[in-house]
Each structure stands twice: as structure tokens, then as C-alpha cells.
Write a structure and sequence with these properties.
The complex is a heterodimer of chains A (276) and B (185). Chain A is of the alpha+beta class and 276 residues long. Chain A has helices at 7-29, 33-62, 67-95, 97-107, and strands spanning 111-122, 125-130, 143-146, 150-158, 163-167, 174-179, 186-192, 196-203, 213-216, 228-237, 243-250, 259-263. Chain A has 4 helices and 12 strands, in the order ααααββββββββββββ. Chain B is mostly helical and 185 residues long. The chains are: A alpha+beta (276), B mainly alpha (185). Chains A and B meet through α1, α2, β1 and β2 of A and α1, α3, α4 and α6 of B.
Chain lengths: 276, 185
């Protein structure tokens, strides 16, 4: 043992390391579930207040200077895009009776409103924590939207009273998508290190222009089609000769989200059947 | 009896402090816009406590804060706790043998060392977690350049926080005679 590092230096290190190992083992075998649930339940109200405070204080940075006017226009455009999307959908539903039935069935699927109580929004991780969990009927893989139909991510981990949602801006997130004006042009939207969204695998022979609206496609059964994702900000040639890539401006600023809705899609069991 | 009561009250406020700081980190700071959401308050406090209070008193605090933080964090349970533990040990060792001058700038230097250790530890621990299949987290889609840029922001934020803590608590003792936690008990 080095002269300057007496035994009282090592003892706490050994004790704390052993305790930490024990905690991880207990967590892995599930014996800490109750304690973790209690800890989450105890901290969630304060975390929720902190999230709202942080979002409120952060807003001036987001909307500073000339960006204020731009934000107003963006907000108006977003609202119009949502309205336009809904109108277009209604029109399509009238024309296509079968699709109308499908659409209404999807829209009549239940959802759960949840408050954001924590965030982990680093470049390498884009995760939010919501205050509803398996007791409310939430399961892994369910899509999460903000109130007016904008897709923000999926549930990746569920506790009894909380769930973690991986945002679409996370590098590991992907969702099948299509253009609102041409649903036959499909591809995959994935996150770009918490900064933007990338719409990849778009066939090179299709015309894509800045401003095109991108929505979820029907290819993922857990995600209803027609949920807004973002608008095209620029288009680049893809990595191969067959595809091109569009970079999207998200429809929502993720750091200011405080309230979301989890869609209980058809793949999900009826919440009433879940053991309370 | 009086001692027991005092210890209980102390433990209560200690727990409250840990919860409060983690809530501030996961709720308040994470909701701020970039680059403010890069501030890692917990790493800064682990470094500060290690330098001012000693590694003995910091380790339980660091691990408790790390475990609570991991309930909210994206990577696996225990990753942050391991990282904070390693940061406290390395900062303490450096303060004993390398950055032995108890000055304002030595505190900042230890902050930089702590941040680098935290970054290295997070890579190492997640790699070990992956080997033992404890986490589904993967660095595979994280750009190395973006990650390194993020570390620079983190270091800057932690150093700024440490400077503020120093000015807040030790401004009258510029030679930092109170920063003696690492000298002994």
C-alpha cells in the first residue's frame, strides 16, 4: 500500500464499491423495483415542476432576437400544416370508404395523456421520462405524440408509474415515413444526434423539395399513419445511386415539450384488461 | 440520544440534498436550451466535494446521486454511479499527488480531470455493461466528433460551475486554505 494512501482511504472505496455492486445485482434480479418505484414517485412531482421551470426559462433563449418573428410564422405555419393535414385526411377518407373506416378506427384508439417529469437530452441520448407507466396501460414500443398529432417518439422502457420515451431525434430512433403530398414516396426517418431528423432511402427518381411535409406511413403497425414528423429543409444525394436523403426540420422543439399523449395502438391490449 | 437525533436530521437533509440536486439536473437543467443543457451539475459537485470534503465523505453521496440519476438517464442502471465513483477516486488521487497546490486554479484543473475521467468512465462502463448484456445502450450510432465536441462543452460548463462555487464559498480565501479535504481526515 502506498505510503500516502492509508487504509482509511481504501476502506470507504471498497465498501461503497461493494454496495454499488450489490445494488446493481438487486436491480437486475428485480428486487429493487419497489424501492425504485417509490423513489420515482417521490421525485416525479418535483421533477415535473423543474421541467416546467426549465422549459419556461429556456424559452427566451429559443425565441431570442429576430427568431421571435420567425417563431410566430413557424408556429402559424405549423398550425396551418396540422389543419391542412387534417383536412386532406378527411377528404381522402370521403373518397376512400375503406380507408376512412381504417382511419377512424385508428383515431378512435384510446390514448393516455402524460406529463414529462425528466429529460436526458444529450447529443448521444434523447430520452424523456413521463409520469405514466404500465399501470395506465403503457407498453414498450407505443408511439408518443404531442397534443395536436405530432409524432415525437416511442416508449422504450416501462415502470409501474413511469416510462422512458426515446425521441425521434435520438440517433437510434427510426420510423417509416412518407410525404404528405405523395404517400407513395416512402422512406425511413431517423434521428441525427439530437439536432435534426434525416429522411433516408427516398427513391432517387422522386422529386423532393424544401418545405415538403413528412408524415408517418402505414408500414409500422404500431404507429398510425398521418402523424406529422417535420418539413424538408434540404435534400442531398444518398450514399448510393438509388436513394436520396432529405433533412427535416422537426415540427416541435423537443426541449420545451412538457405534455405528451401515448397512443394505445391496435398492437396494445385493452387497458381495462390490465391488472390494476 | 442527542447525537442520534442530530445524525438523523443530518441524514434527512443529506438525502434531501441528493434528491434536490438530481431533480435539478434531470428536470431543470435538461430542459434548458443548448448549450445550457450540457451543464453536468453532478460531476461538478462530485469534484468540488472531493476537493473540499475528502473522498470518504464524497463517495456515498456520489453513488447515491448516481443511482438516483440513473433512474432517469438513458443508459443502464448504475452507469452514472460507477462514473461518479471513479471521478471521485481519480480527483482525490490527483489532488494528493499531482495537483497538490490548493489554489483556485488547481480546483479548475481538477474539474477538467474530473470531466475527462467521467467521459472515459462512461465509455468504459457502458462497454463493460454491453459485454455482460446489462444494457441495450450502444455507442455505435453516436458520432465520435459530436461526442468529443460535447465533452468540450461539458468541460467548459463544469469549470465555470466550479469557479462559481469557489467564488461563492471561498472568495475570501484566495489561497484556498479551506480546500484541504484531500489532505486527510
Amino acid at each position: 500500500m502506498p505510503r500516502n494512501l492509508p487504509h482509511w482511504y481504501f476502506r470507504p472505496v471498497v465498501i461503497v464499491t461493494a454496495l454499488l455492486l450489490a445494488m446493481i445485482v438487486l436491480h437486475m434480479v428485480g428486487l429493487l423495483t419497489t424501492v425504485e418505484g417509490l423513489a420515482m414517485r417521490a421525485t416525479q412531482p418535483f421533477a415535473s415542476v423543474a421541467v416546467r421551470a426549465g422549459s419556461f426559462i429556456g424559452l427566451p433563449w429559443v425565441r431570442r432576437g429576430d427568431a421571435i418573428e420567425n417563431d410566430k410564422i413557424t408556429e402559424l405555419y405549423r398550425q396551418l400544416a396540422v389543419e391542412n393535414q387534417q383536412l386532406k385526411m378527411q377528404m381522402r377518407e370521403l373518397q376512400l370508404a375503406q380507408k376512412q373506416t381504417d382511419f377512424l378506427q385508428r383515431r378512435s384508439q384510446p390514448f393516455i395523456t402524460a406529463r414529462v417529469v425528466g429529460k436526458d437530452l444529450r447529443r448521444e441520448a434523447q430520452v424523456i421520462i413521463i409520469d405514466q407507466g404500465s399501470r395506465a396501460g403503457i407498453q414498450e414500443g407505443l408511439p408518443v405524440i404531442v397534443a395536436d398529432g405530432i409524432f415525437v417518439g416511442r416508449v422504450i422502457e416501462v415502470g409501474a408509474e413511469h416510462a422512458k420515451v426515446m425521441l425521434l431525434t435520438d440517433s437510434r430512433s427510426t420510423v417509416p415515413a412518407a410525404f404528405d403530398r405523395s404517400p407513395e414516396i416512402g422512406g425511413v426517418v431517423s434521428g441525427e444526434f439530437g439536432v435534426s431528423l434525416m429522411f433516408d432511402l427516398i427513391s432517387k427518381d422522386k422529386v423532393v423539395v424544401a418545405g415538403d411535409i413528412v408524415v408517418t406511413s402505414e408500414l409500422d403497425p404500431a404507429v398510425p399513419r398521418g402523424l406529422l414528423i417535420g418539413t424538408v429543409s434540404r435534400v442531398e444525394p444518398g450514399r448510393t445511386n438509388f436513394f436520396q436523403t432529405a433533412y427535416l426540420q422537426p415540427m416541435v422543439q423537443y426541449q420545451t415539450v412538457t405534455l405528451v399523449a401515448v397512443l394505445l395502438t391496435s398492437a396494445t391490449p385493452d387497458p381495462a384488461s390490465i391488472d390494476q | 440520544m442527542d447525537t442520534l437525533l442530530r445524525k438523523s436530521v443530518g441524514l434527512f437533509f443529506w438525502t434531501l440534498g441528493v434528491i434536490g440536486l438530481v431533480v435539478i439536473q434531470v428536470g431543470f437543467i435538461s430542459s434548458l436550451p443548448f448549450p445550457l443543457n450540457s451543464i453536468n451539475l453532478l460531476v461538478a459537485l462530485v469534484v468540488y466535494r472531493t476537493v473540499t470534503r475528502g473522498v470518504q465523505k464524497t463517495l456515498p453521496w456520489a453513488v447515491a446521486a448516481g443511482l438516483l440519476y440513473d433512474l432517469y438517464a438513458a443508459w443502464g442502471f448504475g452507469v452514472s454511479a460507477w462514473c461518479f465513483l471513479l471521478v471521485a477516486i481519480l480527483v482525490s488521487t490527483c489532488a494528493r499527488h499531482i495537483v497538490t497546490n490548493r489554489s483556485f486554479f488547481s480546483l479548475l484543473a481538477l474539474g477538467v480531470i474530473g470531466c475527462l475521467m467521467y467521459a472515459a468512465a462512461s465509455v468504459l462502463v457502458i462497454w463493460l455493461y454491453q459485454i455482460f448484456s446489462i444494457t441495450v445502450w450502444s455507442w455505435s450510432r453516436v458520432s465520435a466528433w459530436e461526442w468529443m465536441a460535447g465533452q468540450v462543452t461539458d468541460i467548459f460548463a463544469v469549470v465555470l460551475l466550479l469557479a462559481l462555487l469557489y467564488i461563492g464559498f471561498h472568495r475570501t480565501v484566495w489561497d484556498a486554505t479551506t480546500l484541504d479535504g484531500v489532505k486527510g481526515r
